[in-house]
Design a protein that fits this description.
Helices cover 67% and strands 0% of the residues. The termini are far apart.
């Protein structure tokens, strides 16, 4: 596993997540998590060709997108939303 590819994917997912729409009612819409992660990953991979993306990078992107969602959930809890 290439830590640099994984880390790059994870960081890119966190940056991309800032541009993903977010509805602060995930408990009412079970699909919001999946849409958020898919949209985040799509933003990261938008300009990439298949031969430019390693498996480690993809793992980092996926896990980074999930971590970004969890950060948003924590922020929502702190803000009382």
């Amino acid at each position: 596993m290439s830590g640099s590819d994984y880390g790059a994917g994870w960081r890119r997912a966190h940056m991309a997540a800032q541009g993903v729409g977010f509805e602060p009612t995930p408990h009412l819409d079970g699909d919001q998590f999946q849409r958020f992660v898919e949209n985040t990953m799509a933003l990261v991979l938008k300009d990439k060709r298949d031969d430019e993306v390693s498996e480690d990078f993809m793992c980092g992107v996926g896990e980074g997108a999930v971590a970004a969602w969890e950060c948003r959930m924590q922020q929502e809890k702190k803000n009382g939303c």
